[in-house]
Write a structure and sequence with these properties.
Blueprint lengths: L2 H19 L25 E5 L2 E4 L5 E3 L3 E8 L5 E7 L8 E2 L2 E3 L6 H13 L3 E16 L2 E14 L11 E8 L11 H19 L3
Parallel strand pairs: 4-9
Antiparallel strand pairs: 1-2, 2-3, 4-7, 5-6, 5-10, 8-9
Helix pairs in contact: 1-3
Protein backbone atom coordinates (compact mmCIF):
# COMPACT_ATOMS: atom_id res chain seq x y z
CA UNK A 1 0.00 0.00 0.00
CA UNK A 2 1.37 3.40 -0.97
CA UNK A 3 2.22 6.19 1.47
CA UNK A 4 -0.56 8.27 -0.10
CA UNK A 5 -3.13 5.54 0.60
CA UNK A 6 -1.94 5.23 4.19
CA UNK A 7 -2.15 9.01 4.56
CA UNK A 8 -5.80 9.13 3.50
CA UNK A 9 -6.74 6.11 5.61
CA UNK A 10 -5.21 7.84 8.63
CA UNK A 11 -6.92 11.09 7.67
CA UNK A 12 -10.30 9.37 7.49
CA UNK A 13 -9.81 7.69 10.87
CA UNK A 14 -8.89 11.01 12.50
CA UNK A 15 -11.72 12.85 10.76
CA UNK A 16 -14.41 10.33 11.71
CA UNK A 17 -13.18 9.96 15.28
CA UNK A 18 -12.68 13.64 16.10
CA UNK A 19 -15.62 15.12 14.25
CA UNK A 20 -18.32 12.50 14.59
CA UNK A 21 -17.58 10.16 17.46
CA UNK A 22 -16.31 12.59 20.10
CA UNK A 23 -18.31 15.75 19.54
CA UNK A 24 -21.43 17.07 17.89
CA UNK A 25 -20.31 20.70 18.12
CA UNK A 26 -20.06 22.84 15.00
CA UNK A 27 -16.90 24.49 13.65
CA UNK A 28 -17.07 27.25 16.29
CA UNK A 29 -17.54 24.76 19.12
CA UNK A 30 -21.23 25.60 19.51
CA UNK A 31 -24.21 23.28 19.72
CA UNK A 32 -25.35 22.10 16.28
CA UNK A 33 -28.76 23.68 16.89
CA UNK A 34 -27.49 26.95 18.35
CA UNK A 35 -29.28 29.01 15.68
CA UNK A 36 -32.64 27.42 16.57
CA UNK A 37 -33.96 29.78 19.24
CA UNK A 38 -37.69 29.08 19.07
CA UNK A 39 -39.65 25.84 19.33
CA UNK A 40 -40.77 24.83 15.79
CA UNK A 41 -43.93 23.27 17.24
CA UNK A 42 -45.38 25.89 19.60
CA UNK A 43 -43.15 28.89 18.89
CA UNK A 44 -42.06 29.39 22.50
CA UNK A 45 -38.64 30.90 23.16
CA UNK A 46 -37.86 28.10 25.55
CA UNK A 47 -35.94 25.86 23.20
CA UNK A 48 -33.08 24.62 25.39
CA UNK A 49 -30.23 22.18 24.78
CA UNK A 50 -31.27 18.68 25.80
CA UNK A 51 -28.41 16.48 24.56
CA UNK A 52 -25.36 17.17 22.43
CA UNK A 53 -27.51 16.66 19.32
CA UNK A 54 -30.99 17.74 20.40
CA UNK A 55 -33.02 20.60 21.85
CA UNK A 56 -36.19 20.36 23.93
CA UNK A 57 -38.96 22.91 24.38
CA UNK A 58 -39.48 23.66 28.06
CA UNK A 59 -42.99 24.91 27.26
CA UNK A 60 -44.57 22.06 25.27
CA UNK A 61 -42.01 19.26 25.65
CA UNK A 62 -41.25 18.92 21.93
CA UNK A 63 -37.76 17.46 21.29
CA UNK A 64 -35.89 17.98 18.04
CA UNK A 65 -32.80 15.96 17.05
CA UNK A 66 -30.21 17.07 14.51
CA UNK A 67 -29.93 13.90 12.41
CA UNK A 68 -27.82 13.62 9.25
CA UNK A 69 -29.37 14.59 5.93
CA UNK A 70 -29.13 12.01 3.15
CA UNK A 71 -26.97 13.06 0.23
CA UNK A 72 -26.00 11.16 -2.92
CA UNK A 73 -22.72 10.95 -4.84
CA UNK A 74 -22.46 9.60 -8.39
CA UNK A 75 -19.41 7.65 -9.58
CA UNK A 76 -19.57 7.60 -13.38
CA UNK A 77 -16.78 6.12 -15.51
CA UNK A 78 -16.87 6.27 -19.32
CA UNK A 79 -15.71 3.72 -21.90
CA UNK A 80 -12.21 5.24 -21.80
CA UNK A 81 -11.90 4.65 -18.04
CA UNK A 82 -12.27 8.34 -17.19
CA UNK A 83 -14.07 9.57 -14.09
CA UNK A 84 -16.76 12.24 -14.45
CA UNK A 85 -16.08 15.15 -12.09
CA UNK A 86 -17.55 18.63 -11.74
CA UNK A 87 -16.14 21.87 -10.41
CA UNK A 88 -18.15 23.48 -7.63
CA UNK A 89 -19.59 26.87 -8.55
CA UNK A 90 -20.88 27.65 -5.04
CA UNK A 91 -19.72 27.49 -1.44
CA UNK A 92 -18.74 25.46 0.44
CA UNK A 93 -15.48 24.57 -1.30
CA UNK A 94 -16.25 26.75 -4.31
CA UNK A 95 -13.84 26.19 -7.19
CA UNK A 96 -12.72 22.74 -6.06
CA UNK A 97 -13.54 19.44 -7.73
CA UNK A 98 -16.55 17.36 -6.75
CA UNK A 99 -18.52 14.35 -7.90
CA UNK A 100 -22.08 14.87 -9.20
CA UNK A 101 -24.72 14.58 -6.49
CA UNK A 102 -26.58 16.42 -3.79
CA UNK A 103 -29.25 16.24 -1.10
CA UNK A 104 -32.16 13.83 -1.42
CA UNK A 105 -35.64 15.31 -1.58
CA UNK A 106 -38.42 14.23 0.77
CA UNK A 107 -40.04 10.92 -0.21
CA UNK A 108 -37.19 10.20 -2.61
CA UNK A 109 -34.96 7.12 -2.57
CA UNK A 110 -31.20 7.38 -2.84
CA UNK A 111 -31.38 5.86 -6.32
CA UNK A 112 -33.97 8.41 -7.41
CA UNK A 113 -31.97 11.23 -5.83
CA UNK A 114 -28.69 10.38 -7.52
CA UNK A 115 -30.46 10.01 -10.89
CA UNK A 116 -32.10 13.42 -10.53
CA UNK A 117 -28.91 15.15 -9.37
CA UNK A 118 -26.82 13.77 -12.23
CA UNK A 119 -29.37 15.05 -14.76
CA UNK A 120 -29.62 18.45 -13.06
CA UNK A 121 -25.85 18.96 -12.92
CA UNK A 122 -24.62 17.31 -16.13
CA UNK A 123 -27.62 16.62 -18.38
CA UNK A 124 -26.79 12.89 -18.45
CA UNK A 125 -29.43 10.20 -17.80
CA UNK A 126 -28.64 7.48 -15.24
CA UNK A 127 -29.94 4.08 -16.31
CA UNK A 128 -28.55 1.99 -13.45
CA UNK A 129 -27.12 2.69 -9.99
CA UNK A 130 -25.33 0.39 -7.56
CA UNK A 131 -24.68 1.36 -3.94
CA UNK A 132 -20.98 1.36 -3.03
CA UNK A 133 -20.46 2.84 0.47
CA UNK A 134 -21.31 5.83 2.65
CA UNK A 135 -19.28 8.49 4.45
CA UNK A 136 -20.30 11.17 6.98
CA UNK A 137 -19.70 14.83 6.29
CA UNK A 138 -20.36 18.27 7.75
CA UNK A 139 -21.84 20.64 5.15
CA UNK A 140 -21.80 24.33 6.03
CA UNK A 141 -24.80 26.15 4.57
CA UNK A 142 -26.19 29.60 5.48
CA UNK A 143 -24.08 29.67 8.64
CA UNK A 144 -25.30 26.27 9.85
CA UNK A 145 -23.20 23.10 9.97
CA UNK A 146 -25.43 20.36 8.60
CA UNK A 147 -24.37 16.75 9.29
CA UNK A 148 -24.83 14.64 6.17
CA UNK A 149 -24.55 10.98 5.28
CA UNK A 150 -23.17 10.81 1.74
CA UNK A 151 -24.26 7.72 -0.22
CA UNK A 152 -21.88 6.76 -3.04
CA UNK A 153 -23.40 5.03 -6.10
CA UNK A 154 -21.67 3.54 -9.13
CA UNK A 155 -23.84 4.81 -11.98
CA UNK A 156 -24.29 3.85 -15.62
CA UNK A 157 -25.62 6.47 -18.01
CA UNK A 158 -27.49 6.14 -21.30
CA UNK A 159 -24.69 8.01 -23.05
CA UNK A 160 -21.52 9.76 -21.90
CA UNK A 161 -21.76 12.22 -24.79
CA UNK A 162 -23.04 15.76 -24.30
CA UNK A 163 -22.27 16.22 -20.60
CA UNK A 164 -22.48 19.92 -19.73
CA UNK A 165 -22.22 22.01 -16.57
CA UNK A 166 -25.60 22.91 -15.11
CA UNK A 167 -27.14 23.87 -11.76
CA UNK A 168 -24.38 23.87 -9.06
CA UNK A 169 -21.70 22.62 -11.45
CA UNK A 170 -19.41 25.27 -12.92
CA UNK A 171 -17.51 22.86 -15.15
CA UNK A 172 -17.70 19.20 -16.22
CA UNK A 173 -14.51 17.19 -16.70
CA UNK A 174 -13.63 13.62 -17.66
CA UNK A 175 -10.40 12.73 -15.85
CA UNK A 176 -8.22 9.66 -16.44
CA UNK A 177 -7.70 7.83 -13.16
CA UNK A 178 -3.99 8.65 -13.11
CA UNK A 179 -4.92 12.36 -13.01
CA UNK A 180 -7.53 12.01 -10.26
CA UNK A 181 -6.12 13.34 -6.97
CA UNK A 182 -8.15 13.12 -3.78
CA UNK A 183 -6.72 16.40 -2.45
CA UNK A 184 -8.30 18.32 -5.37
CA UNK A 185 -11.77 17.58 -4.00
CA UNK A 186 -12.78 20.23 -1.47
CA UNK A 187 -15.47 18.43 0.53
CA UNK A 188 -13.90 16.06 3.08
CA UNK A 189 -16.23 13.14 2.50
CA UNK A 190 -15.80 13.38 -1.28
CA UNK A 191 -12.02 13.59 -0.96
CA UNK A 192 -11.98 10.51 1.26
CA UNK A 193 -14.39 8.70 -1.03
CA UNK A 194 -12.27 9.48 -4.08
CA UNK A 195 -9.22 8.17 -2.23
CA UNK A 196 -11.07 4.91 -1.65
CA UNK A 197 -12.12 4.79 -5.30
CA UNK A 198 -8.56 5.39 -6.51
CA UNK A 199 -7.34 2.50 -4.36
CA UNK A 200 -10.13 0.27 -5.69
CA UNK A 201 -9.31 1.23 -9.28
CA UNK A 202 -5.57 0.63 -8.81
CA UNK A 203 -6.27 -2.79 -7.24
CA UNK A 204 -8.59 -3.76 -10.10
CA UNK A 205 -5.95 -2.71 -12.65
CA UNK A 206 -3.25 -4.69 -10.85
CA UNK A 207 -5.46 -7.81 -10.96
CA UNK A 208 -6.25 -7.32 -14.63
CA UNK A 209 -9.94 -6.48 -14.14
Amino acid sequence: MSNESLHYIALFATFANNIYQKTYMNQEGKHLLHLFGYCPKCGAKAFAEDTEKSKRCEACGFTYFMNPSASTVAVIVDERDRLLVVRRSKEPAKGTLDLPGGFCDCYETGEEGVRREVTEETGLSVTESQYLFSLPNMYRYSGLDIPTLDLFFLCKVASTEGAKAMDDAGEVLWLPWQKVKAEDFGLKSISLGVSRLIEKFASAKANGR
